[in-house]
Amino acid sequence: MRAAPTLAEGFPDISEITVARQAHWGRWLAAAAILVVLAAIGRAFVNGQIEWTYVSRFLTAKVILEGITNTMVMAVLAMALGIVLGVVVAIMRLSSNPVLTSVAAGYTWLFRGTPLILQLLLWFNLALVFPTIGIPGLWSARAVDVMTPFLSALLGLGINQGAYTSEVMRAGMLSVDVGQYEAAQAIGMGRLRALRRIILPQAMRVVIPPLGNEFIGMVKATSLASVIQYPEVLHNAENIYYANSRVIELLIVAGSWYLLVVSILTPLQMLLERRFARGALQITR
Amino acid sequence: MTRLSFSVGVAALFVIATAQAAELPESIKQAGTLRLTVNSTYAPMEYRDPTTNQLVGLDIDLANELAKRLGVKIVWSETPFAELIPSLQTKRADFIISGISDRGSRRETADFIDYLATGPQFFVLTENAAKSPIDLCGKKVGTTRSTSFPVEIEKWSKQNCEANGKPAVQYVPGENSIDVRNQLKQGRIDAAVQGSETLPYAQGQEAGKYRILGEPFSTGYQGIMFRKDDAALREVVTEHLAAMMADGSYKAILDKYGLGANAVAQPMMNASTQ
Protein backbone atom coordinates (compact mmCIF):
# COMPACT_ATOMS: atom_id res chain seq x y z
CA MET A 1 0.00 0.00 0.00
CA ARG A 2 1.59 3.19 -1.16
CA ALA A 3 0.36 6.33 0.40
CA ALA A 4 -1.64 8.52 -1.92
CA PRO A 5 0.47 11.42 -3.14
CA THR A 6 -0.34 14.60 -1.36
CA LEU A 7 -1.56 17.46 -3.47
CA ALA A 8 0.47 20.59 -3.57
CA GLU A 9 -1.09 23.57 -1.88
CA GLY A 10 -3.78 25.38 -3.93
CA PHE A 11 -4.43 22.63 -6.51
CA PRO A 12 -7.90 21.03 -6.75
CA ASP A 13 -8.11 17.27 -6.46
CA ILE A 14 -9.08 16.04 -9.97
CA SER A 15 -8.29 12.39 -9.49
CA GLU A 16 -11.93 11.46 -8.96
CA ILE A 17 -13.33 13.29 -11.98
CA THR A 18 -14.54 10.98 -14.78
CA VAL A 19 -13.32 11.90 -18.21
CA ALA A 20 -16.15 12.32 -20.68
CA ARG A 21 -15.69 10.18 -23.80
CA GLN A 22 -15.44 12.14 -26.96
CA ALA A 23 -18.10 11.23 -29.54
CA HIS A 24 -16.34 10.53 -32.86
CA TRP A 25 -19.30 11.21 -35.14
CA GLY A 26 -17.13 11.57 -38.23
CA ARG A 27 -15.54 8.16 -37.67
CA TRP A 28 -18.89 6.46 -37.26
CA LEU A 29 -20.25 8.10 -40.39
CA ALA A 30 -17.20 7.18 -42.47
CA ALA A 31 -17.28 3.57 -41.28
CA ALA A 32 -21.00 3.29 -42.02
CA ALA A 33 -20.58 4.81 -45.47
CA ILE A 34 -17.72 2.44 -46.33
CA LEU A 35 -19.71 -0.60 -45.17
CA VAL A 36 -22.69 0.47 -47.27
CA VAL A 37 -20.49 0.87 -50.36
CA LEU A 38 -18.83 -2.53 -49.76
CA ALA A 39 -22.20 -4.20 -49.31
CA ALA A 40 -23.43 -2.60 -52.52
CA ILE A 41 -20.36 -3.82 -54.44
CA GLY A 42 -20.78 -7.32 -53.00
CA ARG A 43 -24.45 -7.35 -53.92
CA ALA A 44 -23.67 -6.15 -57.45
CA PHE A 45 -21.29 -9.08 -57.93
CA VAL A 46 -23.80 -11.57 -56.56
CA ASN A 47 -26.60 -10.25 -58.77
CA GLY A 48 -24.38 -9.37 -61.77
CA GLN A 49 -24.21 -11.37 -64.96
CA ILE A 50 -21.68 -13.81 -63.56
CA GLU A 51 -22.28 -17.54 -63.80
CA TRP A 52 -20.61 -18.54 -60.55
CA THR A 53 -20.96 -22.21 -61.43
CA TYR A 54 -18.41 -21.62 -64.21
CA VAL A 55 -16.04 -19.99 -61.75
CA SER A 56 -16.18 -22.92 -59.33
CA ARG A 57 -15.99 -25.47 -62.14
CA PHE A 58 -12.87 -23.96 -63.73
CA LEU A 59 -11.11 -22.92 -60.50
CA THR A 60 -9.60 -26.40 -60.25
CA ALA A 61 -9.71 -27.38 -63.92
CA LYS A 62 -6.61 -29.26 -65.01
CA VAL A 63 -5.56 -26.65 -67.55
CA ILE A 64 -5.85 -23.84 -64.98
CA LEU A 65 -3.82 -25.79 -62.40
CA GLU A 66 -1.15 -26.42 -65.05
CA GLY A 67 -1.25 -22.72 -65.82
CA ILE A 68 -0.69 -21.59 -62.23
CA THR A 69 2.10 -24.18 -61.89
CA ASN A 70 3.77 -22.75 -64.99
CA THR A 71 3.28 -19.24 -63.61
CA MET A 72 5.04 -20.15 -60.37
CA VAL A 73 7.84 -22.12 -62.05
CA MET A 74 8.52 -19.17 -64.35
CA ALA A 75 8.34 -16.60 -61.53
CA VAL A 76 10.79 -18.55 -59.32
CA LEU A 77 13.29 -19.29 -62.10
CA ALA A 78 13.17 -15.79 -63.59
CA MET A 79 13.57 -14.25 -60.13
CA ALA A 80 16.53 -16.55 -59.39
CA LEU A 81 18.15 -15.49 -62.67
CA GLY A 82 17.37 -11.87 -61.83
CA ILE A 83 18.96 -12.11 -58.37
CA VAL A 84 22.13 -13.80 -59.71
CA LEU A 85 22.49 -11.15 -62.41
CA GLY A 86 21.57 -8.41 -59.95
CA VAL A 87 24.27 -9.38 -57.45
CA VAL A 88 26.94 -9.69 -60.16
CA VAL A 89 26.00 -6.37 -61.77
CA ALA A 90 25.83 -4.59 -58.39
CA ILE A 91 29.33 -5.82 -57.53
CA MET A 92 30.53 -4.68 -60.96
CA ARG A 93 28.94 -1.26 -60.42
CA LEU A 94 30.85 -0.81 -57.15
CA SER A 95 34.15 -1.99 -58.63
CA SER A 96 37.00 0.42 -59.26
CA ASN A 97 37.54 -0.91 -62.78
CA PRO A 98 35.98 1.56 -65.28
CA VAL A 99 35.20 -1.18 -67.84
CA LEU A 100 33.21 -3.18 -65.29
CA THR A 101 31.33 -0.14 -63.99
CA SER A 102 30.35 1.10 -67.46
CA VAL A 103 29.27 -2.35 -68.69
CA ALA A 104 27.13 -2.73 -65.56
CA ALA A 105 25.64 0.74 -65.96
CA GLY A 106 24.98 0.05 -69.66
CA TYR A 107 23.18 -3.21 -68.86
CA THR A 108 20.91 -1.50 -66.37
CA TRP A 109 20.25 1.36 -68.80
CA LEU A 110 19.37 -0.99 -71.67
CA PHE A 111 17.06 -3.40 -69.87
CA ARG A 112 15.35 -0.81 -67.68
CA GLY A 113 14.90 1.46 -70.68
CA THR A 114 12.50 -0.64 -72.74
CA PRO A 115 9.13 -2.16 -71.83
CA LEU A 116 9.15 -5.75 -70.66
CA ILE A 117 6.63 -6.84 -73.29
CA LEU A 118 8.88 -5.47 -76.03
CA GLN A 119 11.81 -7.46 -74.65
CA LEU A 120 9.73 -10.65 -74.52
CA LEU A 121 8.69 -10.19 -78.16
CA LEU A 122 12.33 -9.57 -79.15
CA TRP A 123 13.54 -12.78 -77.50
CA PHE A 124 10.67 -14.76 -79.02
CA ASN A 125 11.35 -13.41 -82.53
CA LEU A 126 15.13 -13.58 -82.26
CA ALA A 127 15.25 -16.13 -85.09
CA LEU A 128 14.25 -13.39 -87.54
CA VAL A 129 17.72 -11.92 -86.87
CA PHE A 130 19.77 -15.00 -86.00
CA PRO A 131 18.37 -18.12 -87.71
CA THR A 132 20.90 -20.30 -85.90
CA ILE A 133 22.44 -19.94 -82.46
CA GLY A 134 25.58 -21.72 -81.35
CA ILE A 135 29.15 -21.77 -80.18
CA PRO A 136 31.44 -21.73 -83.23
CA GLY A 137 32.90 -25.17 -83.82
CA LEU A 138 31.20 -26.76 -80.82
CA TRP A 139 27.45 -26.68 -81.14
CA SER A 140 24.76 -24.95 -83.12
CA ALA A 141 20.99 -25.23 -83.37
CA ARG A 142 18.05 -23.53 -85.01
CA ALA A 143 17.23 -20.46 -82.99
CA VAL A 144 13.57 -21.45 -82.74
CA ASP A 145 14.43 -24.78 -81.17
CA VAL A 146 16.41 -22.91 -78.52
CA MET A 147 14.06 -19.95 -78.12
CA THR A 148 11.00 -21.91 -77.02
CA PRO A 149 8.25 -19.83 -75.41
CA PHE A 150 9.61 -21.07 -72.06
CA LEU A 151 13.20 -19.92 -72.64
CA SER A 152 12.14 -16.66 -74.31
CA ALA A 153 10.00 -15.86 -71.30
CA LEU A 154 12.73 -16.88 -68.84
CA LEU A 155 15.38 -14.74 -70.53
CA GLY A 156 13.06 -11.80 -71.06
CA LEU A 157 11.74 -11.75 -67.50
CA GLY A 158 15.01 -12.75 -65.79
CA ILE A 159 17.34 -10.34 -67.58
CA ASN A 160 14.88 -7.48 -67.16
CA GLN A 161 14.53 -8.36 -63.46
CA GLY A 162 18.33 -8.41 -63.12
CA ALA A 163 18.51 -4.75 -64.11
CA TYR A 164 16.09 -3.76 -61.34
CA THR A 165 17.56 -6.16 -58.76
CA SER A 166 21.07 -4.81 -59.36
CA GLU A 167 19.91 -1.44 -58.06
CA VAL A 168 18.28 -3.05 -55.01
CA MET A 169 21.48 -4.98 -54.31
CA ARG A 170 23.64 -1.91 -54.78
CA ALA A 171 21.50 -0.03 -52.27
CA GLY A 172 21.84 -2.94 -49.84
CA MET A 173 25.61 -3.00 -50.18
CA LEU A 174 25.83 0.77 -49.74
CA SER A 175 23.75 0.46 -46.57
CA VAL A 176 26.51 -1.58 -44.88
CA ASP A 177 28.73 0.75 -42.89
CA VAL A 178 32.01 1.63 -44.59
CA GLY A 179 33.80 0.60 -41.37
CA GLN A 180 32.84 -3.01 -42.13
CA TYR A 181 34.71 -2.86 -45.43
CA GLU A 182 37.74 -1.32 -43.70
CA ALA A 183 37.70 -3.87 -40.89
CA ALA A 184 37.62 -6.75 -43.39
CA GLN A 185 40.53 -5.17 -45.26
CA ALA A 186 42.43 -4.66 -41.98
CA ILE A 187 42.41 -8.37 -41.20
CA GLY A 188 43.68 -9.12 -44.70
CA MET A 189 40.52 -10.23 -46.50
CA GLY A 190 40.37 -9.85 -50.28
CA ARG A 191 37.53 -7.82 -51.79
CA LEU A 192 35.45 -10.75 -53.01
CA ARG A 193 35.82 -12.71 -49.79
CA ALA A 194 34.88 -9.66 -47.77
CA LEU A 195 31.79 -9.25 -49.94
CA ARG A 196 30.81 -12.88 -49.53
CA ARG A 197 31.41 -13.18 -45.79
CA ILE A 198 30.94 -9.72 -44.36
CA ILE A 199 29.08 -7.35 -46.66
CA LEU A 200 26.44 -9.40 -48.51
CA PRO A 201 25.10 -11.19 -45.39
CA GLN A 202 24.49 -7.79 -43.81
CA ALA A 203 23.10 -6.35 -47.02
CA MET A 204 20.60 -9.24 -47.28
CA ARG A 205 18.75 -7.99 -44.25
CA VAL A 206 18.09 -4.71 -45.99
CA VAL A 207 17.22 -6.07 -49.44
CA ILE A 208 14.66 -8.70 -48.42
CA PRO A 209 11.65 -6.34 -48.29
CA PRO A 210 12.30 -4.76 -51.71
CA LEU A 211 13.13 -8.18 -53.20
CA GLY A 212 9.89 -9.62 -51.81
CA ASN A 213 8.14 -6.72 -53.43
CA GLU A 214 9.89 -7.41 -56.74
CA PHE A 215 9.01 -11.11 -56.57
CA ILE A 216 5.33 -10.35 -56.06
CA GLY A 217 5.62 -8.12 -59.11
CA MET A 218 7.32 -10.93 -61.01
CA VAL A 219 4.48 -13.40 -60.30
CA LYS A 220 2.13 -11.04 -62.11
CA ALA A 221 4.63 -9.99 -64.81
CA THR A 222 4.71 -13.62 -66.02
CA SER A 223 1.22 -12.98 -67.45
CA LEU A 224 2.88 -10.86 -70.16
CA ALA A 225 4.44 -14.07 -71.45
CA SER A 226 0.96 -15.09 -72.60
CA VAL A 227 1.58 -13.11 -75.81
CA ILE A 228 4.55 -15.32 -76.67
CA GLN A 229 2.44 -18.44 -76.03
CA TYR A 230 3.96 -19.45 -72.70
CA PRO A 231 1.06 -21.40 -71.16
CA GLU A 232 0.80 -19.59 -67.84
CA VAL A 233 -2.46 -19.20 -65.99
CA LEU A 234 -3.80 -16.13 -67.83
CA HIS A 235 -2.94 -17.62 -71.23
CA ASN A 236 -4.83 -20.80 -70.36
CA ALA A 237 -7.79 -18.91 -68.92
CA GLU A 238 -7.96 -16.85 -72.13
CA ASN A 239 -7.89 -20.02 -74.23
CA ILE A 240 -10.90 -21.31 -72.30
CA TYR A 241 -12.92 -18.14 -72.80
CA TYR A 242 -11.95 -17.96 -76.47
CA ALA A 243 -13.82 -21.24 -76.70
CA ASN A 244 -16.79 -20.67 -74.36
CA SER A 245 -17.03 -16.83 -74.19
CA ARG A 246 -17.22 -16.82 -70.35
CA VAL A 247 -14.81 -13.89 -70.12
CA ILE A 248 -15.52 -12.49 -66.66
CA GLU A 249 -15.82 -15.94 -65.06
CA LEU A 250 -12.42 -17.06 -66.33
CA LEU A 251 -10.79 -13.74 -65.42
CA ILE A 252 -12.13 -14.18 -61.88
CA VAL A 253 -10.65 -17.69 -61.83
CA ALA A 254 -7.20 -16.47 -62.87
CA GLY A 255 -7.41 -13.47 -60.55
CA SER A 256 -8.29 -15.68 -57.56
CA TRP A 257 -5.18 -17.78 -58.15
CA TYR A 258 -2.94 -14.72 -58.31
CA LEU A 259 -4.45 -13.40 -55.07
CA LEU A 260 -4.01 -16.76 -53.35
CA VAL A 261 -0.35 -17.00 -54.36
CA VAL A 262 0.44 -13.46 -53.25
CA SER A 263 -1.35 -14.08 -49.92
CA ILE A 264 0.91 -17.09 -49.30
CA LEU A 265 4.06 -15.20 -50.29
CA THR A 266 3.61 -12.40 -47.77
CA PRO A 267 4.07 -14.53 -44.59
CA LEU A 268 6.94 -16.39 -46.29
CA GLN A 269 8.72 -13.08 -46.71
CA MET A 270 8.29 -12.43 -42.97
CA LEU A 271 10.02 -15.73 -42.18
CA LEU A 272 12.91 -14.87 -44.51
CA GLU A 273 13.28 -11.46 -42.90
CA ARG A 274 13.51 -13.06 -39.44
CA ARG A 275 16.14 -15.48 -40.66
CA PHE A 276 18.39 -12.78 -42.07
CA ALA A 277 17.88 -10.50 -39.10
CA ARG A 278 19.54 -13.00 -36.73
CA GLY A 279 22.26 -11.25 -34.78
CA ALA A 280 21.00 -7.86 -35.79
CA LEU A 281 18.59 -5.79 -33.78
CA GLN A 282 15.24 -7.56 -33.82
CA ILE A 283 13.28 -4.83 -35.46
CA THR A 284 9.63 -5.55 -35.07
CA ARG A 285 7.42 -3.94 -37.65
CA MET B 1 -53.16 24.05 -106.54
CA THR B 2 -52.15 21.23 -108.78
CA ARG B 3 -48.61 21.61 -107.58
CA LEU B 4 -49.75 21.36 -103.97
CA SER B 5 -51.79 18.23 -104.59
CA PHE B 6 -48.92 16.76 -106.55
CA SER B 7 -46.45 17.30 -103.70
CA VAL B 8 -48.95 15.91 -101.20
CA GLY B 9 -49.25 12.86 -103.41
CA VAL B 10 -45.49 12.44 -103.58
CA ALA B 11 -45.24 12.89 -99.84
CA ALA B 12 -47.89 10.23 -99.33
CA LEU B 13 -45.99 7.83 -101.56
CA PHE B 14 -42.81 8.58 -99.64
CA VAL B 15 -44.49 7.82 -96.32
CA ILE B 16 -45.72 4.48 -97.65
CA ALA B 17 -42.26 3.60 -98.90
CA THR B 18 -40.55 4.33 -95.60
CA ALA B 19 -43.26 2.66 -93.53
CA GLN B 20 -42.14 -0.64 -95.00
CA ALA B 21 -38.46 0.13 -94.53
CA ALA B 22 -36.85 -0.72 -91.21
CA GLU B 23 -35.95 2.17 -88.92
CA LEU B 24 -32.72 2.90 -87.10
CA PRO B 25 -33.13 2.43 -83.31
CA GLU B 26 -34.00 5.72 -81.61
CA SER B 27 -30.81 5.91 -79.54
CA ILE B 28 -28.57 5.69 -82.61
CA LYS B 29 -30.70 8.14 -84.54
CA GLN B 30 -30.57 10.61 -81.64
CA ALA B 31 -26.80 10.39 -81.30
CA GLY B 32 -26.26 10.35 -85.05
CA THR B 33 -23.36 7.98 -84.47
CA LEU B 34 -22.70 4.29 -84.84
CA ARG B 35 -20.09 2.85 -82.47
CA LEU B 36 -18.05 0.10 -84.13
CA THR B 37 -15.14 -1.90 -82.77
CA VAL B 38 -12.62 -3.74 -84.95
CA ASN B 39 -9.49 -5.79 -84.50
CA SER B 40 -7.12 -4.16 -86.97
CA THR B 41 -4.64 -7.02 -87.39
CA TYR B 42 -6.38 -8.70 -90.29
CA ALA B 43 -5.46 -7.11 -93.62
CA PRO B 44 -7.16 -6.59 -96.02
CA MET B 45 -10.38 -6.87 -93.96
CA GLU B 46 -9.33 -4.23 -91.43
CA TYR B 47 -5.85 -2.89 -90.78
CA ARG B 48 -3.96 0.32 -90.16
CA ASP B 49 -2.45 1.73 -93.33
CA PRO B 50 1.32 1.67 -92.67
CA THR B 51 1.88 5.13 -94.16
CA THR B 52 -1.13 7.07 -92.89
CA ASN B 53 -2.03 4.98 -89.79
CA GLN B 54 -5.67 5.27 -90.88
CA LEU B 55 -8.07 2.40 -90.35
CA VAL B 56 -8.62 0.89 -93.80
CA GLY B 57 -9.91 -2.34 -95.28
CA LEU B 58 -12.83 -4.10 -96.88
CA ASP B 59 -14.92 -4.13 -93.69
CA ILE B 60 -14.12 -0.46 -93.07
CA ASP B 61 -15.27 0.48 -96.60
CA LEU B 62 -18.46 -1.58 -96.26
CA ALA B 63 -19.24 -0.02 -92.88
CA ASN B 64 -18.56 3.50 -94.14
CA GLU B 65 -20.87 2.95 -97.14
CA LEU B 66 -23.57 1.58 -94.80
CA ALA B 67 -23.19 4.54 -92.47
CA LYS B 68 -23.47 6.96 -95.38
CA ARG B 69 -26.77 5.36 -96.41
CA LEU B 70 -28.02 5.31 -92.82
CA GLY B 71 -27.08 8.97 -92.39
CA VAL B 72 -24.87 8.43 -89.33
CA LYS B 73 -21.21 8.92 -88.47
CA ILE B 74 -19.06 6.03 -87.28
CA VAL B 75 -17.01 6.26 -84.08
CA TRP B 76 -14.33 3.59 -84.47
CA SER B 77 -12.53 1.83 -81.64
CA GLU B 78 -10.12 -1.08 -81.55
CA THR B 79 -9.81 -4.22 -79.46
CA PRO B 80 -8.09 -7.62 -79.51
CA PHE B 81 -9.97 -10.17 -81.62
CA ALA B 82 -10.97 -12.11 -78.52
CA GLU B 83 -12.67 -9.05 -77.03
CA LEU B 84 -14.94 -8.41 -80.05
CA ILE B 85 -17.82 -10.55 -78.76
CA PRO B 86 -17.62 -9.12 -75.21
CA SER B 87 -17.62 -5.62 -76.76
CA LEU B 88 -20.90 -6.43 -78.47
CA GLN B 89 -22.43 -7.82 -75.26
CA THR B 90 -21.38 -4.84 -73.17
CA LYS B 91 -22.77 -2.49 -75.88
CA ARG B 92 -19.38 -0.93 -76.48
CA ALA B 93 -20.14 -1.67 -80.11
CA ASP B 94 -23.52 -1.45 -81.84
CA PHE B 95 -22.58 -4.32 -84.14
CA ILE B 96 -19.38 -6.14 -85.11
CA ILE B 97 -17.99 -6.13 -88.64
CA SER B 98 -14.42 -7.34 -88.22
CA GLY B 99 -13.60 -10.41 -90.28
CA ILE B 100 -15.45 -12.64 -87.83
CA SER B 101 -16.73 -16.04 -88.95
CA ASP B 102 -20.37 -16.98 -88.51
CA ARG B 103 -20.27 -20.08 -86.29
CA GLY B 104 -22.97 -21.98 -84.44
CA SER B 105 -21.04 -21.71 -81.19
CA ARG B 106 -21.12 -17.91 -81.41
CA ARG B 107 -24.88 -17.70 -82.02
CA GLU B 108 -25.78 -18.17 -78.34
CA THR B 109 -25.45 -14.45 -77.79
CA ALA B 110 -25.62 -13.02 -81.30
CA ASP B 111 -27.11 -13.23 -84.78
CA PHE B 112 -25.01 -13.08 -87.92
CA ILE B 113 -25.81 -11.42 -91.23
CA ASP B 114 -23.44 -13.21 -93.59
CA TYR B 115 -21.82 -11.06 -96.27
CA LEU B 116 -18.64 -12.80 -97.44
CA ALA B 117 -17.75 -16.38 -98.35
CA THR B 118 -14.60 -17.52 -96.63
CA GLY B 119 -12.85 -20.47 -95.11
CA PRO B 120 -9.59 -21.34 -93.40
CA GLN B 121 -6.75 -22.15 -95.79
CA PHE B 122 -3.30 -23.67 -95.30
CA PHE B 123 -0.22 -21.85 -96.52
CA VAL B 124 3.52 -22.53 -96.28
CA LEU B 125 6.77 -20.77 -97.11
CA THR B 126 7.47 -21.09 -100.85
CA GLU B 127 10.51 -23.32 -100.29
CA ASN B 128 8.53 -25.83 -98.18
CA ALA B 129 8.38 -29.35 -99.59
CA ALA B 130 4.65 -29.86 -98.93
CA LYS B 131 2.65 -30.37 -102.15
CA SER B 132 -0.86 -30.59 -100.72
CA PRO B 133 -2.54 -30.20 -97.33
CA ILE B 134 -2.27 -33.95 -96.67
CA ASP B 135 1.53 -33.53 -96.44
CA LEU B 136 0.96 -31.49 -93.27
CA CYS B 137 -0.09 -34.54 -91.20
CA GLY B 138 2.27 -34.81 -88.22
CA LYS B 139 3.65 -31.31 -88.92
CA LYS B 140 3.37 -28.15 -86.82
CA VAL B 141 0.60 -25.84 -88.00
CA GLY B 142 0.04 -22.43 -86.43
CA THR B 143 -2.92 -20.09 -86.30
CA THR B 144 -4.35 -17.27 -84.16
CA ARG B 145 -5.48 -18.84 -80.88
CA SER B 146 -8.50 -16.55 -80.34
CA THR B 147 -10.15 -17.54 -83.64
CA SER B 148 -12.24 -20.55 -84.63
CA PHE B 149 -9.34 -21.96 -86.67
CA PRO B 150 -7.73 -24.15 -83.94
CA VAL B 151 -10.97 -26.18 -83.76
CA GLU B 152 -11.17 -26.30 -87.57
CA ILE B 153 -7.61 -27.61 -87.86
CA GLU B 154 -8.30 -30.30 -85.27
CA LYS B 155 -11.42 -31.36 -87.15
CA TRP B 156 -9.60 -31.43 -90.49
CA SER B 157 -6.76 -33.44 -88.98
CA LYS B 158 -9.19 -36.04 -87.57
CA GLN B 159 -10.90 -36.47 -90.96
CA ASN B 160 -7.83 -36.39 -93.20
CA CYS B 161 -4.83 -37.49 -91.16
CA GLU B 162 -5.94 -39.73 -88.31
CA ALA B 163 -8.69 -41.38 -90.39
CA ASN B 164 -6.00 -42.47 -92.85
CA GLY B 165 -3.62 -43.71 -90.18
CA LYS B 166 -1.33 -40.69 -90.43
CA PRO B 167 -0.10 -38.72 -87.39
CA ALA B 168 -2.26 -35.77 -86.34
CA VAL B 169 -1.42 -32.16 -87.15
CA GLN B 170 0.34 -30.48 -84.21
CA TYR B 171 -1.42 -27.19 -83.51
CA VAL B 172 0.80 -24.30 -82.37
CA PRO B 173 -0.92 -21.17 -81.02
CA GLY B 174 -0.15 -17.62 -82.19
CA GLU B 175 -1.32 -14.24 -80.92
CA ASN B 176 -2.51 -12.80 -84.27
CA SER B 177 -1.96 -13.27 -88.01
CA ILE B 178 1.26 -11.26 -88.00
CA ASP B 179 2.68 -13.29 -85.13
CA VAL B 180 1.72 -16.53 -86.92
CA ARG B 181 3.51 -15.45 -90.12
CA ASN B 182 6.56 -14.48 -88.02
CA GLN B 183 6.57 -17.96 -86.51
CA LEU B 184 6.38 -19.40 -90.03
CA LYS B 185 9.36 -17.32 -91.23
CA GLN B 186 11.42 -18.43 -88.23
CA GLY B 187 10.62 -22.08 -88.82
CA ARG B 188 8.76 -22.45 -85.52
CA ILE B 189 5.91 -23.94 -87.54
CA ASP B 190 5.76 -25.76 -90.89
CA ALA B 191 2.49 -24.28 -92.09
CA ALA B 192 -0.08 -21.69 -91.05
CA VAL B 193 -3.81 -21.12 -91.38
CA GLN B 194 -5.63 -17.88 -92.12
CA GLY B 195 -8.95 -16.96 -93.65
CA SER B 196 -8.76 -17.36 -97.43
CA GLU B 197 -9.78 -13.70 -97.87
CA THR B 198 -6.55 -12.47 -96.22
CA LEU B 199 -4.02 -14.56 -98.13
CA PRO B 200 -3.85 -12.64 -101.45
CA TYR B 201 -3.00 -9.48 -99.51
CA ALA B 202 -0.31 -11.20 -97.44
CA GLN B 203 1.20 -12.60 -100.65
CA GLY B 204 1.11 -9.15 -102.22
CA GLN B 205 2.95 -7.64 -99.27
CA GLU B 206 5.78 -10.15 -99.36
CA ALA B 207 6.09 -11.27 -102.97
CA GLY B 208 7.15 -14.87 -103.45
CA LYS B 209 7.31 -15.62 -99.74
CA TYR B 210 4.23 -17.80 -99.28
CA ARG B 211 2.53 -20.59 -101.16
CA ILE B 212 -1.12 -21.52 -100.63
CA LEU B 213 -1.88 -25.23 -100.19
CA GLY B 214 -5.14 -26.51 -101.62
CA GLU B 215 -8.57 -24.94 -101.30
CA PRO B 216 -10.13 -23.55 -98.10
CA PHE B 217 -10.67 -26.72 -96.05
CA SER B 218 -14.06 -25.71 -94.76
CA THR B 219 -16.53 -23.28 -96.22
CA GLY B 220 -18.33 -20.70 -94.23
CA TYR B 221 -19.18 -17.03 -94.12
CA GLN B 222 -18.06 -13.93 -92.39
CA GLY B 223 -20.93 -12.12 -90.82
CA ILE B 224 -21.92 -8.86 -89.20
CA MET B 225 -22.72 -9.69 -85.57
CA PHE B 226 -25.78 -8.21 -83.85
CA ARG B 227 -27.11 -8.63 -80.34
CA LYS B 228 -30.06 -11.02 -80.23
CA ASP B 229 -32.34 -8.30 -78.83
CA ASP B 230 -31.36 -5.79 -81.50
CA ALA B 231 -33.61 -6.90 -84.36
CA ALA B 232 -34.40 -3.34 -85.48
CA LEU B 233 -30.79 -2.45 -86.14
CA ARG B 234 -30.17 -5.81 -87.75
CA GLU B 235 -33.05 -5.36 -90.16
CA VAL B 236 -32.15 -1.85 -91.22
CA VAL B 237 -28.49 -2.80 -91.83
CA THR B 238 -29.52 -5.93 -93.75
CA GLU B 239 -31.82 -3.87 -95.93
CA HIS B 240 -29.08 -1.41 -96.87
CA LEU B 241 -26.56 -4.22 -97.37
CA ALA B 242 -29.00 -5.92 -99.76
CA ALA B 243 -29.37 -2.63 -101.63
CA MET B 244 -25.58 -2.33 -101.88
CA MET B 245 -25.38 -5.86 -103.29
CA ALA B 246 -28.10 -5.02 -105.82
CA ASP B 247 -26.60 -1.73 -107.07
CA GLY B 248 -23.02 -2.96 -107.47
CA SER B 249 -21.38 -0.86 -104.74
CA TYR B 250 -20.77 -4.00 -102.66
CA LYS B 251 -19.07 -5.73 -105.59
CA ALA B 252 -16.93 -2.65 -106.26
CA ILE B 253 -15.57 -2.70 -102.69
CA LEU B 254 -14.77 -6.44 -102.93
CA ASP B 255 -13.05 -5.96 -106.30
CA LYS B 256 -10.96 -3.13 -104.87
CA TYR B 257 -9.38 -5.74 -102.56
CA GLY B 258 -9.25 -8.48 -105.18
CA LEU B 259 -11.90 -10.52 -103.38
CA GLY B 260 -14.70 -10.45 -105.97
CA ALA B 261 -14.70 -14.25 -105.92
CA ASN B 262 -15.76 -14.22 -102.25
CA ALA B 263 -18.96 -12.28 -102.96
CA VAL B 264 -22.38 -13.57 -101.88
CA ALA B 265 -25.59 -12.91 -103.85
CA GLN B 266 -27.55 -11.49 -100.90
CA PRO B 267 -27.23 -11.08 -97.12
CA MET B 268 -28.11 -14.31 -95.28
CA MET B 269 -28.93 -14.72 -91.62
CA ASN B 270 -27.02 -17.38 -89.62
CA ALA B 271 -26.43 -19.31 -92.86
CA SER B 272 -23.14 -20.93 -91.97
CA THR B 273 -23.32 -24.65 -91.20
CA GLN B 274 -20.19 -24.68 -89.03
From TrEMBL, chain A:
It is found in: Cell inner membrane; Cell membrane. Keywords: Cell membrane, Membrane, Transmembrane, Transmembrane helix, Transport. The keyword Hydrolase does not apply. The keyword Transport applies. Pfam families: BPD_transp_1 (PF00528). The chain crosses the membrane at residues 28-46, 67-92, 116-139, 247-268. InterPro entries: AA_ABC_Transporter_Permease, AA_ABC_transptr_permease_3TM, MetI-like, MetI-like_sf. Its main location: membrane. Residues 68-269 form the ABC transmembrane type-1 domain. It is a multi-pass membrane protein. Coiled coil: none annotated. Belongs to the binding-protein-dependent transport system permease family. HisMQ subfamily. The HisPMQJ complex is composed of two ATP-binding proteins (HisP), two transmembrane proteins (HisM and HisQ) and a solute-binding protein (HisJ). The HisPMQ-ArgT complex is composed of two ATP-binding proteins (HisP), two transmembrane proteins (HisM and HisQ) and a solute-binding protein (ArgT). NCBIfam families: HEQRo_perm_3TM (TIGR01726). This is Histidine/lysine/arginine/ornithine transport system permease protein HisM. It comes from Bradyrhizobium algeriense.
From TrEMBL, chain B:
The keyword Calcium does not apply. Pfam families: SBP_bac_3. It is found in: Cell envelope. Residues 33-261 form the Solute-binding protein family 3/N-terminal domain. It comes from the Bacteria. Belongs to the bacterial solute-binding protein 3 family. This is Polar amino acid transport system substrate-binding protein.
